[in-house]
Every structure is written in C-alpha cells, then in structure tokens.
Write a structure and sequence with these properties.
The complex is a heterodimer of chains A (about 375) and B (about 120).
Chain A: E1 2-3, H1 14-21, H2 38-58, E2 65-68, H3 71-85, E3 92-95, H4 101-112, E4 116-119, H5 130-136, E5 141-145, H6 159-168, E6 172-176, E7 195-199, E8 210-214, H7 242-277, E9 283-286, E10 295-300, H8 305-311, E11 315-316, H9 332-336, H10 341-345, E12 348-351, H11 358-377
Chain B: H1 2-5, H2 8-15, E1 27-33, E2 36-45, E3 48-57, H3 60-73, H4 78-82, H5 86-93, H6 100-118
Antiparallel strand pairs in B: 1-2, 2-3
Helix pairs in contact in B: 2-3
Classes of the chains: A alpha/beta (about 375), B alpha+beta (about 120).
Chain lengths: ~375, ~120
C-alpha cells in the first residue's frame, strides 16, 4: 500500500498514541474529568494541559476552546449556534459552494429553517474574490463561513482579508481549519477570526475529537445544539473524552514543533509529484500550485475517474473528498470551479503527509502514468 | 473502500481484460449512452464468432462486464449472442443496481453486433 490520502486522515503519531493509552485503563488517569475526587482532578488536569497545548498552537487562550467530536460537529455548532444566537439581528448568511460538506449541508439545513444564504462562486482556482464578499454583505448579514485550506484542491483562502471585511461590517467570521491546523501558521490572537473549527485526526491525532475556537469579543456568541449537562459553559455538554482530548493536545504540540520542517518536506514532495505527472498529455492541475503543498488535485482527459482509482491500486488516493468518494456525483467543489462533469469525474486528489517518502511519490507517479496509459489503451475514440 | 464496491471477479476481469482491443477489418458495433462508450469487434465464420474484442470507456463494472461478455461468447454461435441479456451478467458480477443503465449499454452494443452478424 502506498498511502497518499493524508487529507482524509493521518495515522496517529506513536507518541500521541502513548498519551491516549495512559488515560484509558485502570492503571491510568481514566476518571471522568468532571468528577471532583482526586482521580477526576487528575483527568481534568490532562484536559487543561491539552487546551494549553492546542491554544499555544493557534495563539488562543485555553478558555476559548470548546471540545467536540471533530470538525463536522465544530462546523455545525459554530454555524447553527451563531445563526441562532444572532437571528434577532438578521437572518442572512454567506458561504461558498466549495466549502466542505460539513459546512454546505449545514447552511442548506439553515435555508430550510428560514435563513437566507448567499453562495459566493469561486474563481477558476477556487478562490474567493474579496470584492464579491464586500458586495454580498448586507445590513442583516450575521455570519460568513469561508474555509482556510480547501480539502479537495489545497487552495488557501486569504482568511486575514476575509476576516477584516467581516469585522468592518460587524459580521461574525467562521473558518473551517480542518486542513490547515498544525500545517500552516494560524494565529487567532492576531487574525480577525471569530469562530474556528479544528480536528485532531488530520494532524496525527486520534479520530473522534475536535475543537471550536470562540473569540472573546462582544457579539461573538453561539447557542448550544445539545443539552444535558453543564460541561464546557453549557455550549457542548457531555462527558469529555479526556484520552482523545489529551491526544489532540499532544498532537498539536508536536505540530507546533515541526510545522516548518513539515511544510518544507511537503513542498519538496509536491514538486516531485507534479514534476512527474505534469507532462502526461491531458493532465491539468485543479487549484493553484502555490496552494497548500500537502494536496495536489489533478484531472486527466480521456480517462474515467472510477476506473482510474481502481487501476491505481495499491495507491491510496481520493476522488473528490473522502466523504464523497462513494458517490457517483462529480465533485461539487470542482464543478463550482468551472470544470466539466468529465474533468471533475477524472480528478484525483493526492495528499501527502509527514511519513511520505520520495520513493512513495516516485511509485505513485509510475502507477498514475501506467494507469492512464492502460485505460486510454482500451478506450474507444471519443464520440464524434 | 474499493474492496467493498468490487467483487473479486470484477477486480480480476478489470485487472486483466484479455479481450480488450480492436480487430482490424472486423465487424464492429458501438453504443454511447449513460456516460459510457462500448464498442465490440467480431470476426466470424460459418455463423460462429471466432474472435470477440471490446473497447470501453466507463467504470470498472463496465470494463469487467465487457470482458466477461467477450470471454463468454467467443467461439460460440452468433445466435447465442443475440439472446444475451444483461441481468445475468449483472448478477454474476454483483453490479450495484444504480449501475444498471451502464450495463444495459453493453447489452445494446452486443445485440447491435449480433444483429449485424446475423445479416451476414
């Protein structure tokens, strides 16, 4: 197996796994962190330490973090929670069709509940034009949600500029940072971000834990989506998953220490990968070569995408987003960027990670070129 | 993910489509529909298919089905190809029901070829 699907998920770092294991069993700090006995206090200390570690990674005060089950829950809590909290001021919201399904489906649900959503179209690279955002903001606009790094193309939105526009108009700005946390610099202490969704499993932490950053400023409030306990300021009640949270914190600290090296490593591998396939006739890059170097999305003419994916085995890559890969529908992200159904359908997302080696990329290039050659060899001439 | 979608037989046929290719000067029938293109080529003599080949643009189930069809009907009487129906092939390859339309394209192309060969 050659795993180049790190945008879907990453393996847990062995140091992180050790941290998690230590909080699971009877000989470890397994107690409920809400309990007030000694064991509970020890468990609570692990959660607090994790918040400090994650807070340090994004320059946030630990108190401003809400633990969730992952980025999807964080997105839902941020978007629905903010929309409801500010509904008395207005019911207009703004996002893009190129967002992750966790965001687009949430906005679609809000549309069903009487909110009005403006869906801003991206340019051909997938980027938002700031003038378009400025034109879309109205007096009753309450929330803008634009992601940092796109999960399919790796395109990087200018979150500083988007956030600045939102601040000018007193509109909350939510960022889905699932793909950028720990990989690109994220300083919420200095960026105009009000709400930011994060997840552990994209940064060598465990699946099943995420976080939502909520800025400490007037008007930045959300309503809870679940009820049943007083944990986490009643915003996300329920017993905290202390082992997973501790693992997330440890993964965040590791990411802090090796972010620069990781970026350099990914850029070298991305250049090797693109250099190996760019001259294949009919291959086009979806997005921008200056985007996040961990993701490279390419389409190819004359090849059917599902067959390409199977022909690429044992290479593990994705068509569209992983959540979408079982669907027969072409990627909505790529369609919104102006690709035809055929182009979108042949798109393959290569995503690189910390463990990826140059040999893996070389093997991927060979598999990709051979698969295209083989499938083109058994395809009839295109219809006249 | 893929192991849940494709049966072992589909994987084998897709990975080694021995009948993929064209036959120069052979009889050919092609159908383009449902986002699928399938073309069959046949050399016949005395009412029997001597060689059967295909070219296909489509998902792995389409390619596997085209390969299975060629393997089944090569060296068989043309009359047998006339009665080909996609249902049995879909069952033997465990093709998902949502792909029925694509496999029917293969049926259309095979029947079109059989009809052509029947007029020889």
């Amino acid at each position: 197996m050659i795993y180049l699907d790190y945008a879907a998920t990453t393996p847990v770092d062995s140091r992180v796994a050790a941290t998690i294991l230590a909080l699971l069993t009877a000989d470890g700090d397994f107690a409920n962190p809400s309990s007030n006995h000694q064991a509970g206090l020890r468990s609570r200390a692990h959660v607090a330490h994790a918040a400090e570690r994650l807070g340090a990674l994004i320059n946030a005060h630990p108190d401003r973090l809400i633990w969730t089950s992952g980025a999807t829950e964080s997105d839902n809590l941020a978007i629905i929670g903010a929309a409801r909290a500010r509904a008395h001021r207005g019911r207009h919201l703004i996002t893009m069709p190129t967002e992750h399904k966790a965001v687009t489906d949430t906005f679609a649900a809000l549309e069903q509940q009487g909110f009005e959503v403006s869906w801003l179209a991206p340019d051909s690279r997938g980027l938002l034009e700031i003038a378009q955002l400025e034109a879309a903001i109205r007096e009753d606009t309450q929330l803008v949600s634009i992601m940092h790094v796109n999960n399919e193309t790796g395109i990087v939105q200018d979150i500083a500029q988007i956030g600045a526009v939102c601040r000018q108009h007193d509109v909350l700005y939510h960022v889905d940072a699932a793909q950028s946390l720990g990989k690109l610099p994220l300083d919420v202490g200095n960026l105009p971000i009000d709400l930011m969704s994060m997840t552990a499993h994209k940064v060598y932490g465990p699946k099943g834990v995420g976080a939502l950053f909520i800025a400490d400023r007037p008007g930045c409030h959300i309503e809870p989506l679940t009820y049943g306990g007083g944990q986490q300021k009643r915003l996300r009640p329920g017993t905290l998953a202390a082992p997973l949270i501790a693992g997330f914190g440890h993964a965040a600290e590791i990411a802090s220490s090796c972010q620069a090296d990781d970026l350099k490593h990914l850029a070298e591998l991305r250049d090797q990968l693109w250099g190996g396939i760019r001259d294949v006739p009919g291959v086009t890059l979806n997005g921008d070569i200056d985007g996040f170097p961990g993701i490279l999305n390419v389409s190819v003419d004359g090849v059917e995408g599902e067959s390409l994916l199977l022909a690429l085995e044992p290479l593990c890559v994705a068509t569209g987003s992983a959540c979408n890969s079982k669907s027969q529908e072409p990627s909505g992200v790529l369609r919104a960027m102006g690709l035809s159904d055929m182009q979108a359908q042949s798109a393959i997302r290569f995503s690189l990670g910390r463990p990826t080696r140059g040999e893996d990329v070389a093997a991927a290039v060979e598999l990709y070129c051979n698969a295209i050659s083989r499938l083109r060899g058994i395809a009839p001439e295109p219809p006249a | 993910m893929t192991s849940e979608i494709y049966s072992a037989r589909v994987r084998k046929l897709f990975g080694n489509p021995a009948h993929a290719g064209s036959l120069a000067g052979a009889h050919a029938a092609r159908v383009d529909d449902q986002g699928v293109s399938v073309q069959f080529f046949a050399d016949v003599a005395d009412g029997r298919i001597l060689e059967l080949r295909f070219l296909a643009w489509g998902c792995p189930h389409v390619i596997a089905a085209a390969e299975a069809l060629c393997a089944q009907y090569e060296r068989r009487p043309v009359s047998e190809l006339k009665s080909f129906e996609a249902g049995q092939l879909m069952q033997s390859l465990s093709v998902p029901v949502e792909k029925t339309g694509r496999i029917l394209v293969i049926e259309d192309a095979a029947r079109s070829l059989a009809e052509m060969l029947g007029k020889i």
